[in-house]
Automatic annotation (TrEMBL):
<dbReference type="InterPro" id="IPR053207">
    <property type="entry name" value="Non-NMDA_GluR_Accessory"/>
</dbReference>
<protein>
    <submittedName>
        <fullName>CUB domain protein</fullName>
    </submittedName>
</protein>
<keyword id="KW-1015">Disulfide bond</keyword>
<feature type="domain" description="CUB">
    <location>
        <begin position="145"/>
        <end position="297"/>
    </location>
</feature>
<feature type="domain" description="CUB">
    <location>
        <begin position="459"/>
        <end position="556"/>
    </location>
</feature>
<dbReference type="Pfam" id="PF00431">
    <property type="entry name" value="CUB"/>
</dbReference>
<dbReference type="InterPro" id="IPR035914">
    <property type="entry name" value="Sperma_CUB_dom_sf"/>
</dbReference>
<feature type="domain" description="CUB">
    <location>
        <begin position="29"/>
        <end position="121"/>
    </location>
</feature>
<dbReference type="InterPro" id="IPR000859">
    <property type="entry name" value="CUB_dom"/>
</dbReference>
<dbReference type="GO" id="GO:0005886">
    <property type="term" value="C:plasma membrane"/>
</dbReference>
<feature type="domain" description="CUB">
    <location>
        <begin position="313"/>
        <end position="436"/>
    </location>
</feature>
Length: 590
């Protein structure tokens, strides 16, 4: 059966009108074909008014209706349909459309059949004009004007309203699905900036004077909606849910207005919807509609201020409090990635870093430092910067969970470097930071508690050997009572010239745990200069082997994370014994 369209013609394809009854469901093993042929410039629209074909599965292996986007079965398939369908619309790209109806033997059920309206018209959106011949921009087959834009890795594209720059058609809804790369090694965000915008919706409108918020904009006659979250994108693309957007735009928006964007996706996808009603408005100016630039950029999933190009993982943090993380955290970080995080305070400030999560890849029984992290103090000496690796040359790898860290005295900036190789990946890390007033002394002359909100409890002192005091103890605050939150202690012990110091751990009860090869000192940590391991915690003082210093001084630091970072309240304490000159011990109970 063949129907040929005139300039515009609407008809109904039903059992009666098209004599489909001869191949209805009362018969078995039947095949019917319907060829709809339009005039040049026309497209074909199908509307499924009623459709009830036996449903044998998602792929319709039994009874089915197949719609081809052309005049033969070699044309692309728009859709294969079975089951119950209500008020579904399908469009051809060109002038012709072929429908095949197949039933099986024996009949699987006794459903009603179908009633399909069809329409030939040249008022439907011109797909070729909408795409502008761009690579990576395709029409979504079966729709009137839905478009998909796919990234080819950090590419840029344009999307347009139908007929741009001329007046757009009435009663038209077009969705633009913008998809960045998403995979183990690639993750992109979508950035949309409108370069021209004139979608008129108010009889009295001329040019938008920027409203205080996007919520103040109402667009009854025509609109452009921007959906960036999963929930709003799902509603926008649903045939049943009411569309909801993060931003709704209309009227003629002047160049330079913040309403033009940029709009940034929350993940690798964004959806833009253009819609009109039967009421078209004009202000006598051109252009009409919109033109928008779509940029796909690498998304590291890091909240800081970008400092490099879009594919460089360089971020700066200046807020008084915040966090930074490995790329794409909590998903696995990509291979062969290098990131640098700049945490920058002002003169007279210091920085506290506390890791909430740390899980890097390391080979079991092999190299556990394939991926690593380093923390540096940054000293500003005139116009120059000097980086000092925190306390040790050891990197933090898969076997060491970093303890809380405070920037060195005189350093108001810190730098964190993360590197992954090509052999494996993990969840990565998330670290919290706080920029606070700096300590007044490198080594305290006496225990102090800074004013509330202005710093940690400071403890420690300088201990110097003498003929009468060659030995002694160093202990954490309140020992043997539980220690408090937000504590930072520094001791500097000095023997007489020509002597060394022997340190021995007497008692240690600090949150965390250590073994011969691993350490997890997330909440509290002891650091001893020159010790074989960079950090100590837990309850096994045997992990701290007696240490003889290389010279006549040693520094011991204890950092206990602040309550700000949700540290547990039932903390224990530490005791260390020191022996000066003769090589005695330091005992610490944390």
């Amino acid at each position: 059966m063949t129907w040929i369209g005139n300039k515009q013609r609407t008809a109904r394809l039903t059992d009666e009108a098209l004599n489909v009854r001869v191949c209805g469901l009362s018969h078995t093993n039947f095949h019917c074909s319907y060829l709809l042929k339009g005039r040049p410039g026309q497209r074909v629209r199908l509307f499924f008014r009623d459709f009830d074909i036996y449903f044998g599965g998602e792929h319709c292996p039994y009874d089915s209706v197949t719609i081809f986007d052309g005049s033969s079965t070699s044309s692309p398939i728009i859709k294969k349909v079975c089951g119950l369908q209500q008020r579904m619309e399908l469009y051809s790209v060109g002038t012709d459309l072929l429908i095949h109806f197949n039933t099986t033997n024996p009949a699987k059920a006794d459903p009603r059949g179908f009633v399909i309206d069809y329409e030939f018209s040249n008022r439907f959106v011109d797909v070729a004009q909408l795409l502008h011949g761009q690579k990576g921009v395709t029409h979504m087959r079966g729709t009137e004007c839905d478009v998909r834009v796919e990234s080819n890795r950090e590419t840029s594209h344009y999307i347009y309203s139908p007929k741009y720059p001329e007046m757009y058609p009435p009663n038209t809804t077009c969705s633009y699905i913008l998809d960045g790369l998403q995979g183990d090694q690639n993750l992109e965000k979508v950035i949309v900036t409108f370069e021209e915008f004139a979608v008129l919706s108010d009889d009295d409108s001329a040019v938008v004077t920027d409203p205080p918020t996007l919520e103040d904009i109402t667009c009854p006659a025509a609109w452009v909606g921007v959906a960036t979250s999963d929930a709003t994108m799902k509603a926008t693309l649903s045939s049943t849910d009411e569309s909801n957007f993060e931003a709704t735009l209309c009227e003629r928006i002047p160049s330079g207005s913040p309403l033009l964007g940029p709009y940034v996706s929350g993940g690798p996808r964004m959806v833009i919807q253009f819609g009109t009603t039967d009421k078209l408005l004009t202000d006598g100016l051109r252009p009409h509609g919109f033109k928008a630039r779509v940029d796909f950029k690498t998304d590291f999933g890091v909240a800081g201020e970008p400092m490099g190009t879009s594919n460089e993982c360089l971020f700066r943090f200046r807020s008084p409090m915040g966090f930074f993380n490995s790329p794409r955290y909590p998903a696995n970080y990509p291979l062969d990635t290098n990131c640098t995080y700049f945490i920058e305070g002002e003169v007279g400030q210091q920085i506290l870093i506390h890791f909430e999560q740390f899980a890097l890849f390391g080979e079991q029984g092999g190299d556990r430092c394939k991926d690593w992290l380093e923390i540096y103090d940054v000293f500003h000496e005139g116009a120059e910067e000097r980086l000092a690796l925190r306390g040790t040359t050891k990197r933090y790898c898969s076997d060491t969970f970093p303890g809380p860290t405070v920037s060195a005295f005189g350093a108001h900036s810190m730098r964190v470097i993360f590197s992954s190789d090509s052999t494996g990946t993990g969840n990565g890390f998330k670290a919290l930071y706080e920029i606070r007033p700096a300590a007044k002394e490198d080594i305290p002359t006496h225990e102090t508690k800074e004013p509330k909100g202005d710093g940690a409890y400071r403890c420690g002192r300088r201990i110097r050997a003498s003929a009468t005091t060659p030995t002694g103890y160093v202990m954490s605050p309140n020992y043997p009572i539980k220690y408090n939150k937000d504590v930072h202690c520094d001791w500097e012990i000095s023997a007489r010239d020509g002597h060394k110091i022997l340190l021995t751990m007497v008692k240690m009860e600090i949150e965390g745990e250590m073994s011969a090869t691993t350490a997890s000192c997330q909440k509290a940590v002891i650091r001893v200069s020159g010790a074989p391991r960079p950090e100590y915690c837990g309850t096994d003082q045997g992990v701290f082997t007696p240490l003889v210093t290389k010279n006549n001084s040693v520094r011991i630091s204890e950092v206990i994370a602040e309550y700000l970072f949700k540290v547990k309240k039932n903390r224990q304490n530490m005791l260390m014994r020191r022996n000066l000159d003769s090589g005695s011990t330091i005992g610490t109970a944390l």
